[in-house]
Amino acid sequence: MIARVIVDVPTKQTDRPFDYKVPEAMSGWIEVGSRVGVPFGGRTLQGFVVELAEQSEVDLSRLKAIAELLDPSAPLSPDLIELALWISDKYCCTWTAALQAMIPSALKGKAERYISLQESNLHAEAGLPQPVLEHIRKYAPVKLDTLQQRFPDSSAAIKAGLRSGVLSETVAVKDRLAIRTVLTVFPAADSITEEEALAQIPARAAKQRELLSYLFTRNEPIPLQALLAETGSSAASVRALEDKGLVEVREVQQNRDPYAGRTFAPSQPLELTEGQQAVFESITAAVLAGDPKVFLLQGVTGSGKTEVYLQSIDCCIAQDRQAIVLVPEISLTPQMVERFKGRFGDAVAVLHSRLSNGERYDEWRKIKEKRVKVAIGARSAIFAPFERIGLIIIDEEHESSYKQEESPKYHARDVAVKRAKQHGATVVLGSATPSLESYAAARRASLQGDGQSDALLPLPERVGGRPLPPVEIVDMREELKAGNRSMFSRRLHQALGERLERGEQSVLLLNRRGYSTFVMCRSCGYTAGCPHCDISLTYHQKSRMLRCHYCGYAEHSTLVCPECQSEHIRFFGTGTQRVEEELAKLFPGIRVIRMDVDTTTEKGSHEKWLTMFGERKADVLLGTQMVAKGLDFPFVTLVGVIAADSSLNLPDFRAAEKTFQLLTQVAGRAGRHHLPGEVVVQTYTPDHYSVRTAQRHDYDAFLEEELRHRRMMSYPPFCRLILVTMTHEQLPLLVEQGERFAAALRERAARAGVLAPLATAQERAMDILGPVASPIPRLKDRYRFQCMIKYRGNVDATELLRSVLASFTEGQQQGKVLFSVDVDPQVIM
Ligand SMILES: Nc1ncnc2c1ncn2[C@@H]1O[C@H](COP(=O)(O)OP(=O)(O)OP(=O)(O)O)[C@@H](O)[C@H]1O
Ligand SMILES: [Zn+2]
Predict the structure, then answer these.
(1) What is the radius of gyration, based on Cα positions, of the chain?
(2) Where does Zn(2+) 1 bind (predicted)?
(3) Distance between CA 275 and CA 4 in Å, rounded?
(4) What's the CATH class of domain 274-464?
(5) Among candidates 436, 332, 413, which has minimal Cα distance to 661?
(6) Best label site of 85, 122, 146, 282, fewest CB within 10 Å?
(7) What is the CA(671)–ligand 1 centre distance, in A?
């Protein structure tokens, strides 16, 4: 039998299946999706079996055999293998990169070669130096790398030893023992009574007798360490009992449960409102029919979307099918987890990046081993290895964090739709502020559909008829005119004071996207920039360092301008720390919880802050984007936005959309329960439509205006985008290659008959813009240029691009221009 294997070498040249013989001993064990170690170009590499076949096109005698099967059962299933191929096609990445994205990092260990001595050849020490031989004899199997490091002069001899058979080689993957085991003591109480057992122990061995009594009384397995701690006995006593067969000590697999010891109050389904009921019925009808339909659930903040998710999942599970719930990383809060664990108990696995590798692996195994029915997690949970998915929910579907920024640059929303097709599963995209792409797709689907069920499911009202909070816009330019130089307007200042008096809580959002604390000299205009990237350095107060957020470069901040020696060098920008300081000045004694990247790096800190706030141990929750989403606290009656427009000035065609979404989301945190809420938004651009429409909670009005802009400028959803970024250390070479690349692409598009500006009426059109310098023109000492491909209609743009790229990436090995392709880019930097 032949196995076709994708080896873990992420280059275009090796990105195809290679044939290997399946050794007799492994046949029956190797399946599609198995992880194997295979010889490849003189090394042994990890790979995945993507196909099994009887015959190979390659001469059988020339085929190598699979060296090792790395797991007892295949970590991937055929549908995931197929999905990975689809991803590599759609996002122009290698098949192996897509496969690697699907497995927990505990399984990504590199395959390593281990060397042993061949028993039968012990005396034929063919040319191996004595110390090497001794070392192997003593420690075998020894990692080849270690051996070569220790005996650098003996590399050739070791190779010769392997060839002649003096040495043998096995492959093992580092970290493969990611399963944690614990030595556990089992009393043999089933086969023997306590009295019979005691009779076997001499009277003087008091410690053993005591231990035995303890174990038999307890009559259940106990980890060895716990036993020793509890009884104060020694391991030797346990061993003595083991020798007599009175207890058994063996390794037991342990689950690292990130939520161990936590109890979740069980919750019952709520009686749905009329609106929720209608939405619920549409979703469950599709789930019951196994219809891979995509719904867009547009529900205002606090409309009870989560309750609809929970009950729809219930219906899915009752069909003996599984459900995946994606939430943005930062809203995967304890509150969110609690709602799912409270309803489904142990049937839920939680996957997010704050878990340790081991915890993540154990949660993943719960899914793989069918111990859970629901997986909730961030982006990569879309690859949860369920067998029969019935429902996929993507909450806050408009979030850009669903797009992975490094290879494979997939969008979890599009992967979800594909995966749902494979499984006959229904997709629900939920948001108060849907992305324009999803909205356009839903509208199209509704128009083309059977007219019986609409793809757009609206929930326009809050549960219990609670009103959306009134939003007040404060023009900060007027504040300055009135002589207020504070970052707090008089209105927000007053509103905060009222909350303090009434003992209510406030959420303050500092919109920091594209806004950082940078250093500028007021005399000469000098700004501190990174010497390797064309980007300003960010000031970190705690360490008094200036850092580059792109390459990690750091330097001490100075008190004197390095250009003009002036002492008027100042920190600019409104960091959360500065807001916190100002709050303390304005309201002495105010209790503030600050949540930003600096205060939430520690494991569990996120949870700690939110719990504290929930317990009303603080008056104000101040933070960046992470305070805007998902939070549901009854005593929050004021939401303040400190600088609404800092995200409007970014070189990003989605700037207005992002601003509208953020304002709407954060406004939705106020007045969700019996106390009415109020929102104050400070801005320098009060007339911008994204601010105006957010003030009225008017998605439709925003949509209309934004669609007009997008159509005019030819941006999604009126076309699709591919961003190609090229980098090189030498600018002239990069410019020359970039021009050649763009010309080749245009020529290819013209030949395919699709080259046309998008503004024309042509149904199929493709426009190639650039090359131009990227918004960040230099990064890590490499210059950056980009081409933007815009296209619409049934143009196979990725295929076209691939064929051009092939001629550019092959060939010139030296000083290559690096190309990076981003399909449907979210960030254009
Ligand atoms: N049918 C119902 N009856 C009573 N209360 C409900 C019902 N559905 C939801 N709720 C409650 O209403 C509140 C808001 O619901 P939920 O958090 O699910 O809304 P959401 O749309 O997911 O909100 P957001 O998008 O703003 O985070 C919650 O406290 C929830 O428990
Ligand atoms: Zn840098």
Answers:
(1) 31
(2) 521, 524, 561, 564
(3) 52
(4) alpha beta
(5) 436
(6) 122
(7) 12
